């Protein structure tokens, strides 16, 4: 049994210190998944806290450490969907603002190569356009694109997280990618 499984078992048994250590490895994942759904850093912080509370109260329902990431992302997904429903007719979010987290601009987390300032600027602009296009997708499409193409989850995991059948997941991903391609084309033509 590795250290992660030991921490998971202790967290399930109610050990708060083990829970805190175990969850520290998932804080960035929670924040980034919530940010991709909500595009607002203040909302993401609130969602992250809410998710941690839900996980703490329900961690005993998770089968094992191996399935924890999918289980956690389902909680993040559902919590974000609940938040989107609450604020559906409320304030709007600016698509012009550069996405940021506590670690700085999100696109810098996605770029791993050190390049010239010009290529960095081009990559930054491309990432900003992609983020805008993702934000313009309907929430069901945005969710599956984020879970598949950003978080790298399998179709089966996405089906469990979103609570829809596998065929629906595949068709939503196909439609989301098609819509994303159209959105990107529109955004790039506006430049």
Alpha-beta classification: mainly alpha
- Read across the widest sheet, the strand sequence of neighbours is 1-2
What profile does the largest beta sheet have?
Answer: 2 strands, antiparallel
Shape: globular
CATH class designation of the largest domain:
Mainly Alpha
Overall average residue pLDDT: 82
The gyration radius over C-alpha positions equals 18 Å
Overall helicity: over 70%
Low-confidence stretches: 108-113
Q: Strand portion, in percent?
A: under 5%
Number of strands: 2
Written as H for each helix and E for each strand, in order along the chain, the element string is HHHHHEEHHHHH
Number of helices: 10
* Count of the domains: 2
**What is the CATH architecture assignment of the largest domain?**
Orthogonal Bundle
From the 3D structure, determine the CATH topology of the largest domain.
Rna Polymerase Sigma Factor, Chain: A
Q: Kindly report the name of the CATH homologous superfamily of the largest domain.
A: RNA polymerase sigma factor, region 2, helix turn helix motif
Termini, distance in Å?
Answer: 54 Å
Tell me about this structure.
The chain folds into 2 domains: 1-91, Orthogonal Bundle (Rna Polymerase Sigma Factor, Chain: A), CATH 1.10.1740; 103-191, Arc Repressor Mutant, subunit A (Orthogonal Bundle). Strands 1-2 form a two-stranded antiparallel ribbon. The radius of gyration is 18 Å and the shape is globular. It contains 10 helices and 2 strands, in the order αααααββααααα. β1 (100-101) and β2 (104-105) form a beta hairpin. Helices cover 72% and strands 2% of the residues. The protein has helices at residues 3-12, 16-24, 27-38, 41-58, 68-86, 106-110, 117-136, 139-150, 155-162, 166-189; strands at 100-101, 104-105.
